[in-house]
Write a structure and sequence with these properties.
The chain is an alpha/beta fold and about 350 residues long. It is built from twelve helices and twelve strands. The chain is about 40% helix and about 20% strand. The chain binds nicotinamide-adenine-dinucleotide (NAD).
Length: about 350
């Protein structure tokens, strides 16, 4: 039996509610697929500030570094908004990403037929959409030097940011893109602005070179402005999109909103080795509904499916969770965020329990 250590960090707001349901799913999957998941729960974000005065304690960082994967709920909330930026709950996420060396962010966007009306786009445009954005997380415009705002001799202010990528940085994110495409429909689109930005001209050259190692994956290229248009015009054409940090930030938000339901969307951030990965829903701690028991746990449960697929190579178990989610939606179960007017709503625990039943738990 394979054994995996998982650091479970529920965080704040609805975090503990949704993570509790995801942890139950892991237990059932462990039994069915003969894997020993050892879950160790710890405080992060505002919950950690309240106890330790810091959003990420050394012990929790050590736990994350020594685990095979991290499952995170969400952090933040009005209680901690007045604090200095350096000790805000969100700092914990940045520190975890940095210390774990997470350089690739994976964000799938999939349309569920039964929720098609949750999108603001026409059903015929989005029916069948199933894509994944791979965003580079640690380089590019957000981190490049020089940066800052300076005042020139004539009093004019000048702001500078620099888009920088080195060959190894592009190679490693390209490899993630190809590997992920291999686990899907084997189509990889690299998004750049190679007609204007030299940095992304290099990006394109390196991606093409890495592509030689993946002859089974069909590689194509698109400029970022066209990609932003195509995501709205004909999103079905995409399988995996790999792109640099800033483009990925924007395109992954655009892609996720094709679905119109924030409570359904998982994500993964992965690093250089299989032991470096963090899985979390894309939404925040939803303080407006925290404690009411009405949060949608599906994004977190689907994050567990991503963990099984990308960290533990348990494709069958991952697919089984995704099937169970589709099955409960097909049966008409809806949490408040995805319920249409007049539809009956279930609680967070009821949604979790229904998925567990589908899984045979
Ligand atoms: P949010 O994603 O928490 O909530 C936006 C809206 O979506 C709210 O109306 C909320 O009720 C709803 N919602 C979100 N997740 C839901 C779910 N699972 N089920 C049902 N409804 C859901 O974004 P926000 O309100 O801008 O931020 C709230 C707090 O979360 C802030 O402190 C913010 O900094 C933090 N935040 C954390 C993360 C993270 O931990 N990764 C990400 C984004 C925001």
């Amino acid at each position: 039996m394979s054994a995996f250590n998982i650091a479970v960090l529920p965080g704040d707001g609805i975090g503990p509610e949704i993570v509790a349901e995801a942890a139950k799913v892991l237990k059932v999957i462990g039994k069915r697929f003969k894997a020993d998941f050892k879950l160790k729960e710890a405080l992060v974000g505002g919950a950690s500030i309240d106890v330790y005065g810091r959003p990420l304690s050394d012990e929790v960082l050590k736990l994350a570094l020594s685990s095979d994967a991290v499952l995170l709920g969400a952090v933040g909330g009005p209680k901690w908004e007045g604090l200095d930026y350096s000790i805000r709950p969100e700092r914990a996420l940045l520190a975890l990403r940095k210390e774990l060396g997470l350089f690739a962010n994976l964000r799938p966007a999939k349309i569920y037929k039964v929720l098609i009306n949750a999108s603001t786009l026409k059903p015929e445009v989005i029916d069948g959409v199933d894509l994944l954005v791979v965003r580079e997380l640690t380089g590019g415009l957000y981190f490049g030097e020089p940066k800052g705002v300076e005042t020139l001799a004539n009093g004019t202010e000048r702001g500078v940011n620099t888009m920088v990528y080195t060959t190894p940085e592009i190679e490693r994110i390209a490899r993630v893109g190809f590997e992920v495409a291999r686990k899907r429909r084997k189509k990889l689109l690299s998004v750049d602005k190679a007609n204007v930005l030299e940095t992304t001209e290099l990006w394109r050259r390196v991606v093409i070179k890495v592509g030689k190692d993946y002859p089974d994956v069909e590689l194509s290229h698109m400029y970022v402005d066209n990609c932003a248009m195509q995501l709205i015009r004909n999103p079905k054409q995409f399988d995996v999109i790999v792109t640099e940090n800033t483009f990925g930030d924007i395109l992954s938000d655009e892609a996720s909103m094709l679905t119109g339901s924030i409570g359904m969307l998982p994500s993964a951030s992965i690093g250089a080795t299989k032991q470096r990965a963090m899985y979390e829903p894309i939404h925040g701690s939803a303080p407006d509904i925290a404690g009411k028991g009405i949060a949608n746990p599906i994004a977190t449960i689907l994050s567990v499916a991503m963990m099984l697929r990308y960290s533990f190579d348990m494709e069958a178990a991952a697919a089984e969770i995704e099937r169970a989610v589709e099955a409960v939606l097909a049966k008409g179960l809806r949490t408040a965020d995805i319920a249409a007017a007049g539809e009956q709503r279930v609680s967070c625990v009821q949604m979790g329990a229904a998925i567990l039943r589908e899984l045979g738990g």
